[in-house]
What we know:
Helices cover 29% and strands 19% of the residues. By secondary structure, the chain is an alpha+beta fold.
Amino acid sequence: MKDIVNTKIKFREPFRPFAPSVLSNHVNNYFDIPKSSTGQLEKFMLSVVPVKEKKFTEIAAVNHMGTARIQTVYQDSNPLYYGLIKFFFEMTGTPMLLNTSFNVRGEPIVNTPEDAIKTFLNSGIDTLVLGYFVVDK
């Protein structure tokens, strides 16, 4: 998956890491969260944590040298995104999505729905989820 995103969408170097957005109730199954954590750093992608060794291969696209800069997604604070990840989990058995900035090389990060559609149409993205809408090419 990492190679697909780098070649079809991001057009960037293959060594740059991607992050996972993971359902809050599954985070401890995949990552070693410090016991002292309140969860706030992970909620906002401000913490790099070790990936559990037995999960290295399963989540290879977001495993960067045994670590990941995770975003923990909670149902109460982000119900729409939580629902999307939960749906993916129900279909695949993986309770996370690959998370990266929504832009292609040389372009600013998407800021409006119009930006999102333009980037979607001019990249190798197959499907765009925009609020409650799902758009396929």
